[in-house]
Amino acid sequence: MEMVIDFPGGARVDAHFGPYEVKTDQPTPFSPGSAPTPFAVFLASIGTCAGIYVLGFCQQRGLPTEGIRIVQRVQSNRLTGMTEHIDLEIQVPPSFPEKYYGALIRSADQCKVKKTLETPPTFKVFTQVVG
Q1: CA R_g for the chain
Q2: What's this model's pTM, rounded to 2 decimal places?
Q3: CATH number belonging to the domain at 36-118, selected among 3.30.1330.60, 3.40.1000.10, 3.30.300.20, 3.30.470.20
Q4: Which end of the chain is more exposed for a tag (fewer CB within 10 A), N or C?
Q5: Given pLDDT bands bounded at 50, 70 and 90, which one contains residue 29?
Q6: CB-based contact 6:23 (threshold 8 Å)
Q7: Alpha-carbon distance 104 to 108, whole Å?
Q8: For residues 90 and 72, is the Cβ–Cβ distance under 8 A?
Q9: Pairing of β 4-9 and β 12-17
Q10: Is residue 75 within 8 Å of 86, Cβ to Cβ?
Q11: How far apart are the first and last CA of the chain?
Q12: What is the mean pLDDT of residues 90-107?
């Protein structure tokens, strides 16, 4: 997969891939920003990825998804600001069958974003003169 990252102005940095565009922005002391920060998009990808797996589990079994949601909580190191712990709480309505609770957790654990963080890729950053 190839993504093209560009700088449309101000503190905005956008990603383009296939037919999609992901807009990001950095807030300043004078502006809240026009889009989420890149790190917020990264964190959202964890919860939404887990959500895709939970949704798929329920759909495959004909289980209703109304009232199901995932609450993600992020704990960061106060000194470094680095994320140290992420909780994904799968909330279900009282009518959801208890026998599926463990399976919901196992399905969320299959999230590709989470698995990538558990076995991180290597990075190569370089400059290329174009044009």
Answers
A1: 18
A2: 0.90
A3: 3.30.300.20
A4: C
A5: confident
A6: no
A7: 6
A8: no
A9: antiparallel
A10: yes
A11: 23
A12: 98
| Domain assignments of the chain as residue spans, ordered by start | 36-118
Q: How confident is the model at residue 31 (pLDDT cuts 50, 70, 90)?
A: confident
**Is 83 in a helix, a strand, or coil?**
strand
Alpha carbons 11 and 34: distance in angstroms, whole number = 9
For residue 112 the two structure tokens come to 């590709």
Q: Is pLDDT of 28 > 90?
A: no
Report the percent of the chain where pLDDT is more than 70. Answer: 100
Report the distance separating Cα 29 and Cα 25, nearest Å. 13
Q: Which residues pair with 9 in a beta bridge?
A: 12
Token pair 């190839």: residue? 2
Chain centroid to Cα 39, Å, comes to 9
